[in-house]
Amino acid sequence: MPFLLWCAAECSLCVARLAVLMIAQRAASERRATPTDLYILLGLAWAATVGYGTFISLVGGDWVVAALSCLSAAAMVGGISFRNFGAPRFAGAMIVLALGPCCAAAPFTGEPIFFITFLQIPFYLAAMSAAGFRLNKLLVATMRAERENAFRAHHDSLTGLMNRAGLAAAMEARPENRMALFYLDLDGFKAVNDTYGHAAGDTLLQGVADRLRNGVGRPASIARLGGDEFVILTDAAEHPALLAFAERVAAQISVPYVLRFDQTAVIGVSIGLALEPQHGSDLASLLSAADAALYEAKAAGKARCIVASA
């Protein structure tokens, strides 16, 4: 009967875990929450059934069955450690549940030499757990490096805003709304650089980025394309609303900046505006049209926003 119960528990857990995996896969494909907690509990229950089988095999006195059971448990522990190294404490709990009953069964086997399991299994548990934690550390370091590399590939290192590649990715990811692209070029930035040095210029650029990041006031993708050129990509609207938005951005940028050593700098901004679909439907076309409008704004006396010609 104990072995029949073990078989029934193993089969039931196998079916349950498979069902939960299928449900989780469907939920993940639909971007819904997955039953991860339930799967973890079923994993612990499965490890407990492995330990239960080892215990009844050892207590039963049939050493062929006991050898097979212990060999299976030990083999499963290796898989537990390396399949679950992303969650080393979970793997350790499963190992304790699977192999711990060997120690619990030792007093009932009638074989004093079997008490050696009290020495072997803790060391085995420690070694496998340590391997899991080391693998987990490598996994975390790799994920962090990948995340940092992905961030650097799509973001400007000085300001933390998106770069051209990040802006292109943001444009592809946006919904099917029509877009407006504001191309900004700072007025008076070169004079700040020449007067106070490049370090002060970098501080000024970071200040501009912070104001754009925190003060745009509507959903937008913000990028620095290099030098003192910035881009704001947002949903299109009527011309008066977009021009009012540009005026608010210009007003925020024009507030004096405190640089290093209490140095103060005042700059302005010229803006070129391109709209989808009038001026194109891809990033290159919109940038080209907005850049041409920006040069018109510069030529007209700076500190203004001009909409690109059709």
UniProtKB/TrEMBL annotation:
Its EC number is 2.7.7.65. Gene3D superfamilies: 3.30.70.270. GO terms for molecular function: diguanylate cyclase activity. Residues 177-310 form the GGDEF domain. Keywords: Membrane, Nucleotidyltransferase, Transferase, Transmembrane, Transmembrane helix. It comes from the Bacteria. The chain crosses the membrane at residues 6-24, 36-57, 63-82, 89-108, 114-135. Signal peptide: none annotated. PANTHER family: DIGUANYLATE CYCLASE DGCT-RELATED (PTHR46663), GGDEF DOMAIN-CONTAINING PROTEIN (PTHR46663:SF2). This is GGDEF domain-containing protein. It comes from Methylobacterium adhaesivum.
